[in-house]
Design brief:
Blueprint lengths: L9 H7 L4 H10 L11 E2 L7 E12 L16 H8 L5 E5 L11 H9 L4 E4 L6 H6 L4 E3 L11 E6 L3 E3 L2 E3 L4 E5 L2 E5 L4 H23 L12 H12 L15
Helix pairs in contact: 1-6, 2-6
């Protein structure tokens, strides 16, 4: 098993940035994994670059008034703030907020600090406060709904780098997180290289199918492609993928 803090290999990350979450969930389904797409978790602001990185997990539990105080938090010991400074560059912070957006799972200043540190993105099945400001950051962020109240209204940050649930999906430290405008998919780390390779191939084939559909070809025999269509696909690749809207570099397939 890889170390939980191990950075994602650059070639795998590049391939996953070419694959949609729809494609990735199909590949994982074909591998026997059905519950990999987070439910109710969506981008704070759509239109950002695809998010890819290993999961760094933070688990929230319900707050308790004798422990949690908005005015007595010490940034040197408060786990939420400590995590802001320790989540590795290139990783995705995934927060188990028990699906509760009645209190924030984080805000704009902590998100800004993580962006400056090179964190790849942040995800919660709760909500972020200052969500308009978070949406303006370059770093992608995903949540279930805006949550203006402070974290201590509902949550207490309890531990990091343990297996968690987020959006109804099991997330283990080091799992590969991919996010786009449809949402978040979780890829087991041991499967990431194969899934990435298969996903890019599938995206390329579907790019060919889209070219043919735009030219007026019916779906029969094309989608899904039969043997004849696959031979035509290979010939299309050899011609340099004319009409492609996605792939130009054959080295990624």
């Amino acid at each position: 098993m890889p170390e939980r803090s191990q950075a994602l290999e650059a070639d795998i990350a590049q391939q996953l940035r070419l694959a949609s979450t729809a494609t990735l969930t199909t590949i994982l389904f074909n591998k026997g994994l059905r519950n990999v797409f987070m439910q109710g978790v969506r981008p704070v602001q759509p239109g950002k670059a695809r998010m890819v990185g290993p999961a760094y997990t933070l688990r929230m539990i319900p707050c308790r008034e004798d422990i949690d105080s908005l005015f007595e938090r010490d940034s040197r010991t408060d786990l939420q703030r400590v995590t802001t400074e320790t989540v590795p560059a290139g990783a995705v912070l995934v927060i188990d907020s028990r699906g509760d957006a009645a209190g924030a799972s984080g805000g704009a200043l902590l998100a800004l600090r993580m962006q400056v540190r090179g964190v790849a993105g942040i995800v919660t099945d709760g909500g972020f406060r200052d969500s308009p400001e978070i949406g303006m950051l370059d770093m992608p962020a995903f949540h279930s709904a805006p949550a203006a109240p402070p974290v201590v209204v509902r949550h207490h940050p309890e531990d990091v780098q343990l297996a968690i649930a987020c959006g109804g999906v099991s997330v283990r430290p080091g799992d590969i997180i991919v996010g786009d405008d449809e949402g978040i998919v979780v890829i087991p780390r041991a499967m990431a290289a194969e899934v990435a390779r298969l996903a890019v191939r599938k995206e390329d084939v579907e790019d060919f199918i889209a070219v043919e559909l735009r030219a007026g070809r019916p779906v029969t025999g094309l989608y899904p492609p039969d043997d004849a269509a696959m031979r035509q696909y290979e010939a299309w690749v050899e011609r340099g993928r004319p009409g492609s809207q996605h792939f130009q570099d054959e080295s990624v397939v």
